[in-house]
Amino acid sequence: MEDNTKTWGIRGISADVRHAVITQSQKQNMKAGEWLTTAILEKIRQDRNIGKALVATSGKPAVSIEDASAILALLERLQGMGIEPPDRMKKKAVTLVRRCM
C-alpha cells in the first residue's frame, strides 16, 4: 500500500489516469507497475489478434447455401417429373444442407 501512495509519473499521463491505475492495481492486489505491465501486454495481444477470426474447420471445403439450394431445387425438379431420386443422392443433399447449418 505504501508503494501506491508514492508519486509516479510518465510524461503525458494525467493525474486521473495515474489514480485509475493505482485503484485497479489495488483491486487486484498488485503493484501499480505490475498491473500496468499486464494491461499493456493484454492490449498488445488484443491488437495483434484483431481481424483474426476464429474459424472451426474440419479440413473440408465450406459449402455455401446457394450450393445446397441448387441441389434441393434439382431434387424437386426430378420429383416434379415423376423421377424418384436415388437414396444416395437424397442422403448427400441432407448432408450438404447440414453442413450449411
Described by strand count, sense and barrel closure, the largest sheet is:
none
Radius of gyration: 29 Å
Helix content: 55-70%
Helix run count: 5
> What's the helix-strand series?
HHHHH
- Termini separation: 55 Å
Mean pLDDT: 79
User: Number of domains in the coordinates?
Assistant: 2
- Contiguous runs where pLDDT drops below 50 for at least 5 residues: none
Strand content: under 5%
Kindly name the structural category: mainly alpha
Shape: rod-shaped
Question: How many runs of DSSP E, i.e. beta strands?
Answer: 0
Describe what you observe in this structure.
This protein has 101 residues and is an all-alpha fold. It folds into 2 domains: 2-49, no CATH class; 65-100, no CATH class. It has 5 helices and no strands. The protein has helices spanning 2-5, 15-27, 32-49, 65-80, 87-100. Helix 2 crosses helix 3. The model has no long low-confidence stretch (mean pLDDT 79).
List the helices and strands and how they pair.
Layout: H1 2-5, H2 15-27, H3 32-49, H4 65-80, H5 87-100
Which properties best describe this structure?
about 100 residues, mainly alpha
Short description:
By secondary structure, this protein is mostly helical.
